[in-house]
Design a protein that fits this description.
Length: 314
C-alpha cells in the first residue's frame, strides 16, 4: 500500500524533530538512511535544515503552566475548562483548526498527560477553552483538578484532510459533531468563516448527552441544528454541500464516506483524527501503522480522509 502523505510539522518551528535525530523522519528518505532523495519536495529540504541545525532537532514544544479560571461540570462524565495562559505564551499559537495539546494537573506525574483538542481561544484575554469527557484514570485525575494545569503543545494534526478546510473559499460547508467530537467544530467553523464559506453545524449529544459546542457556535453566529442519522442522510444527499467535516467516531466517518461514495457526490471530506495518540512526537509508536514496510506515524502524517477510510486505516 503506497500512501501519499505529508508531515504536519514540515517547515514549522518544530522541524526537524526528534525523528530526524533517530533516523525516522516521515518525509526525508536521506534522514531514514536511504541513498536516494524521494521526498516529494515539501518546499523545504529537511535534510539541509537538519545539517544547518548541527544535526539536531529544532525547537521543542513547551511545557506551559496555566491557571484554571473557570470549570463547569455538566455531568459526571463531561466538564469544561477555561485556562489563562502566562504572558510569555500567546493563545493565537493554538488557534489553528485541528490543534490539540497534552494536559495534566500541575502536581501529577508526566504519564498523566492526556491529548485534548483546543475547543476555542480568546486572543484578547489570552484564554483557552477545553471540553473533556471523563473516560479513564487520566481524565478522572484532570476532573479533580481545580487550580493549575501543565500543558504541552501546540500540536496540529487533530484533523485529517486539513488542506480542504484551509483552502475552502465561498463554499457550502457542513460540520457534523457527535458527542465530545463537537469540541473540534468551533475552530473549524472559525477557519471556514474567514474564507467566507457558508456553514451549518449539525450536532448530536452522543455519549456525553449534551451538545457542548452549541452555545459557542451560536455566539459566533453560526447556524446550528440537531440531527439524527436518517435526517442527516437526507440533508447530505439534498444539501449540495462542497465540504463536510466529520467530528466523532470512526463509524460516523465511514457512514458519511460511504454515503458520499455510493451516491457519487462531489464533496470533499475532512475528519477528526481518531488514531491513538500518546506522545504527539511520533516517538512512542502508539499511532503508527506498518504500511508495506513503511512505518507511518499518524500523529504527524497528514493524509486525505477519503484515502484513509477507503484503505480501512480507521
Amino acid at each position: 500500500m503506497k500512501l501519499d502523505y505529508s508531515c504536519i510539522d514540515t517547515a514549522s518551528n518544530y522541524c526537524p524533530c526528534y525523528l530526524a535525530e533517530t533516523g525516522d523522519c516521515i518525509v526525508c528518505p536521506i534522514l531514514r538512511g536511504d541513498n536516494n532523495c524521494d521526498c516529494r519536495w515539501p518546499k523545504i529540504c529537511i535534510y539541509q535544515e537538519f545539517l544547518w541545525n548541527g544535526r539536531k532537532k529544532a525547537n521543542m514544544r513547551n511545557f506551559i503552566k496555566a491557571k484554571i479560571i473557570e470549570k463547569k461540570i455538566y455531568s459526571e462524565n463531561l466538564f469544561t475548562l477555561t485556562i489563562k495562559l502566562p504572558q510569555d505564551t500567546q493563545a493565537i499559537d493554538f488557534g489553528q483548526a485541528g490543534t490539540f495539546v497534552f494536559i495534566k494537573p500541575q502536581d501529577s506525574p508526566n504519564f498523566y498527560e492526556v491529548p485534548i483538542c483546543v475547543m476555542d481561544i480568546d486572543e484578547e484575554n489570552n484564554l483557552m477553552f477545553f471540553a473533556i469527557q471523563v473516560l479513564g484514570p487520566k481524565t478522572k485525575n484532570l476532573f479533580n483538578e481545580n487550580e493549575r494545569i501543565v500543558l504541552r503543545g501546540p500540536y496540529y494534526n487533530g484533523i485529517l484532510g486539513l488542506k480542504y478546510i484551509k483552502s475552502s473559499i465561498s463554499k457550502n460547508c457542513m460540520l457534523i459533531g457527535r458527542g465530545i467530537g463537537q469540541a473540534s467544530l468551533v475552530m473549524v467553523a472559525k477557519a471556514l468563516n474567514r474564507g467566507n464559506n457558508r456553514i451549518i453545524a449539525m450536532l448530536n449529544p452522543g455519549a456525553v448527552m449534551f451538545n457542548i459546542a452549541e452555545e459557542i457556535l451560536k455566539k459566533y453566529g453560526f447556524l446550528v441544528r440537531p440531527y439524527e442519522e436518517e435526517g442527516l442522510r437526507d440533508l447530505i444527499l439534498k444539501g449540495k454541500f462542497e465540504l463536510i467535516f466529520s467530528a466523532g467516531s470512526n463509524s460516523q466517518h465511514k457512514f458519511i464516506f460511504d454515503l458520499i461514495r455510493k451516491n457519487c457526490l462531489d464533496v470533499k471530506l475532512a475528519i477528526s483524527n481518531n488514531f491513538q495518540i500518546c506522545c504527539g512526537e511520533g516517538v512512542c509508536g502508539s499511532c503508527a501503522l506498518n504500511l508495506d514496510g513503511e512505518m507511518v506515524r499518524f500523529c504527524k502524517a497528514q493524509i486525505d480522509a477519503e484515502r484513509a477510510l477507503q484503505e480501512g486505516l480507521l
